[in-house]
Amino acid sequence: MQNSKIDSDFSSRLSSIETRIDDALLRLSRLEVVERRLEEAISYFAVRSNLLVASQSVYLGDDTAVTFLKNNLRILVDTRSVDVGIHLLTLGEWEPGYMALFNRLLRPGDTVLDIGANHGVYALHAALTVGPEGRVHAFEPNPRLARLVDLSMKINGFGGYATLHPVGVSDREGTARLIFSDSFSGGGAVSAGQAHAAQQSTECNLVALDTFFTDPGFKVDVIKMDVEGHEGLALRGMRNLLERSPDVKMMMEFGPEMMARSSVGAEEALNMLGQMGFKMWRIGAEGELHAASSETLLAEHQTIQNILFSRELPRIFV
């Protein structure tokens, strides 16, 4: 009888110990969940707080701020710009997928043209990569943006090999009317039309690259061009330069509807490039390439597409 009572007490204590162990394990599992969630929260807020700390945007007056790009370059921004400008001020980047491809095409010592530089994001990235042995030429006809780009190049120490040209690129030298909006700085365009109520306009100078770069030995490695429908005229004015640059890779905004407003439309521009041996690829959202043809590009008349033109598929994709 005594043994039975001892066994019962032992079983009861053992059961109590097991219950306590189960409770302890349950609490530990809850702590692991809390710890994991705390790590996730720290990571979540660290990324966002780092953006705020790293941006360090400082307003300088006169609708101008200085901020940092994600690669730590400093850039001057027009604070009225709610398209390009606001992305630079809050995120430190613009067109990340397109920029990813652009950066992959660059090599130290390259010669790069940024045609339609806007705030100069591409020119600054190019200057950082090509270094003092390379050359960067940025073209921007908007006098306000041109001034900001020029200053951004200088405050980053690129003044010796990165140059801002405050002109538009076309098929001839001369002057034209530039229509633009301070609020939507990415949409400035050389136009024969009149500015709408929400737009401004100013006279700008134009150059043809074949006569602008007078050295017949001058070649280019990478071109980024975004001139809001004026691409065909710009291509006509740089034909000799493209022909003597066998390895050039050109990233270009391609909008048949916009290009139809100029005297060199989308079809003529593609024919010109085809005659010089260029092939074409659509640039995807993450900077990937998709094979394309003149027929498919022209069929999407109202669509604005980003296209890479090159005589061969760049080695980074081979």
What is the strand and helix layout of this fold?
Layout: H1 2-55, E1 58-61, E2 64-68, E3 74-78, H2 84-91, H3 96-105, E4 111-115, H4 121-130, E5 135-139, H5 143-155, E6 162-165, E7 168-169, E8 174-180, E9 189-191, E10 200-207, H6 209-212, E11 222-225, H7 231-236, H8 239-243, E12 249-254, H9 256-259, H10 266-275, E13 279-283, E14 289-291, H11 294-299, E15 305-310
Parallel strand pairs: 4-5, 4-11, 5-6, 7-10, 11-12
Antiparallel strand pairs: 1-2, 2-3, 8-9, 8-10, 12-15, 13-14, 13-15
Give the structure's gist in a few sentences.
The protein has 11 helices and 15 strands. The chain is of the alpha/beta class and 318 residues long. The mean pLDDT is 89.
What profile does the largest beta sheet have?
Answer: 8 strands, mixed
Could you give the order of strands across the largest sheet?
6-5-4-11-12-15-13-14
Radius of gyration: 29 Å
Low-confidence stretches: none
What is the average of the pLDDT values?
Answer: 89
SS strand fraction = 15-25%
Identify the overall geometry.
Answer: elongated
Secondary structure: number of strands: 15
- The helix/strand series, from N terminus to C terminus, equals HEEEHHEHEHEEEEEHEHHEHHEEHE
Structural class: alpha/beta
- Give the number of helices: 11
Distance between the termini: 87 Å
Q: What is the percent of helical residues?
A: 40-55%
Task: Give a description of the structure.
The strands form three sheets. An eight-stranded mixed beta sheet has the order 6-5-4-11-12-15-13-14, with helices on both faces. A four-stranded mixed beta sheet has the order 7-10-8-9. Strands 1-2-3 form a three-stranded antiparallel beta sheet. It contains eleven helices and 15 strands. With 318 residues, the chain is of the alpha/beta class. The chain is 41% helix and 23% strand. The radius of gyration is 29 Å and the shape is elongated. A hairpin with a 2-residue loop joins strand 1 and strand 2.
